[in-house]
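note to self: dont lose this again. the chain is below, predicted strucutre after it. 266 aa total, dont forget to put it in the shared folder this time
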Amino acid sequence: MAEAAVHPLAAVDPNAKLGSGVEIGPFAVIGPNVTLGDRVKIHSHAIVTGNTEVGEGCEIHPFAVLGGPPQDKKYRGEESRLIVGPFNTMREHVTMNSGTEGGGYITRVGAHGLFLTAAHVAHDCQVGDHVIFSNNATLAGHVTVEDHAILGGLCAVHQFVRIGAHAFIGGMSGIENDVIPFGMALGNRATLAGLNIVGLKRHGFEREQIHALRQAYRLLFSQEGTLQERLDDVDKMFPDHAAVQRIVGFMRAKADRSFCVPRSQS
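---
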């Protein structure tokens, strides 16, 4: 097992836990309650602080700050955590904050994510696997981002919003309501602009699956009946279709925000 390679100009607290093969560059700062998994690479001037766990194979670029205290006026210094899963890339100036009492004391980021320059994950957010945050994509507190979601540059997501799996958020969009799985949201304030067809094709969804999702989308956002009635109709029409059922389950789950809908219904 390779020992950690720590540059002599790095400031690494002796109580920090470093996995095998960790690399830490000059002027990086690693706090006493930090755990770095195997083969984590910390570039110069990056900071990992607080009660923070960084998973295997992550790469943290200069001036990123992970584990800083929440930007929440209700925070009173209570002990909270940031947990980052394996094989994420955090580019320059990315920030990820620890949790608060109101969010269960934990911010969690999944695996294989790409967080481009100055992306921000606020307190108590729950971020899934294989996400992409483009430059300056920003989450407010308590946001949920599911697997394979893509957030465009300079977009901002309101607190407590949910972004469904495989959703696409356009650049410079302001997201104040939940975005369904596979949905595409654009604009300020954002409206639903159909399904993320490009993303579906890139992830290997078959033509028949995409056709079913399109049918379900049209039914869910038609003008007839109540939302509950439309959800029931889609549920009955596609009882065994996993992707459609993911949308149905997402929309039936208890939520703090309304749904992002097509412009004609805004």
